[in-house]
Design a protein that fits this description.
The structure is a homodimer of 217-residue chains. The first copy, chain A, is an alpha/beta fold. Chain A is 37% helix and 12% strand. Chain A is globular, with a radius of gyration of 16 Å.
Amino acid sequence: MKIVIILSGGMDSGVLLSELFLRTNISAIYALTFDYGSRHNKREIAYARKLAYGYCADHKIIKLDFIKKYFKSSLLGDMRDIPEGHYASENMKSTVVPFRNGIMLSIACGYAESINAEELYIANHAGDHFIYPDCRPAFIGHLKEAMHHGTFNNIRLKSPYCHITKRDIALIGKKLKFDFKNTWSCYKGSNKHCGKCGTCVERKEALEGFDPTEYIK
Amino acid sequence: MKIVIILSGGMDSGVLLSELFLRTNISAIYALTFDYGSRHNKREIAYARKLAYGYCADHKIIKLDFIKKYFKSSLLGDMRDIPEGHYASENMKSTVVPFRNGIMLSIACGYAESINAEELYIANHAGDHFIYPDCRPAFIGHLKEAMHHGTFNNIRLKSPYCHITKRDIALIGKKLKFDFKNTWSCYKGSNKHCGKCGTCVERKEALEGFDPTEYIK
């Protein structure tokens, strides 16, 4: 079976890729990374490339120029706009790229149909639900049905981490000896993880006890 | 109320735009046209531009380069690949761009959320159901729910022609004195409508009795 996975270069999709790589019923993995022109995107993409190579996945980078051009989000602006603090807090809402998962998944679904892949994977998790409406189970459930009905091949959308936390994902990765150094989280996109932005705080909490990340002191 | 409409430059979305233009509860119309690199797309886009201008809609053209690059469809190839005959027949399947409506609607939904629009319109109709799975009521219904749950503003997806035929749309247009000459259907994308490809045959049937289109003899 061929599958498609959305690979951001972050730890969640990295761990998922490493899990799928081990499944004997999957013959080929096609990873898609989306370049929506954000600052931290450039860093993420380099990590996605490394991950895809490491897990023998075909890798395509899809540019979405219209997002930076027409959409609003602090992720797409200047580094100063990125809020610091806890990922789940109200001010993190400004980092939302509207309907990003809907857009990435729809494109990935069309691509899956094009190459006769049967399943499409995304690594959204329970911790995302607070701020990102397009990570919630209700959204994923309806999109899953839309994809089933909207394709000739009845593409199956799979979101195996939808009901577990980032900590749980980290523990799965640990068990699989996944190298977290090969992933990027920081929204600020400097050379090292800043350790202060929402995703850095979240990463630290998830990897506590076995975090190999170098943070800016 | 602000709304977003997907405007292809064809007669269906043209008639819908002319209907929405008359509604007093709509204060601003934002039309999105997608350029997925097909032959007939260039023609369509010129007509979409004209329609948007005529109905005072803000108009943006969104390029989707990845479709031509990575997707399979006879629409994206050479003119010889376009099948002739009836729109609803089996060989028209090759003109499907996989999950096209899913992709366009997801992008339009993110854009609607970005500009605080409340509703998103698409002019798919009952005649599309035969060959395009992403035009069917089941697909639209689930995507509608996915958009409701997947956005902060609970964007409402509207598909007012989902259960009527292209002939019905033509009759609505006739009643509104809509000028069908301002729209483009032909998949072949020459100077005039070919009159033989699937969409030309469908257009002829819909406009029978009041068709102002010049077809190649």
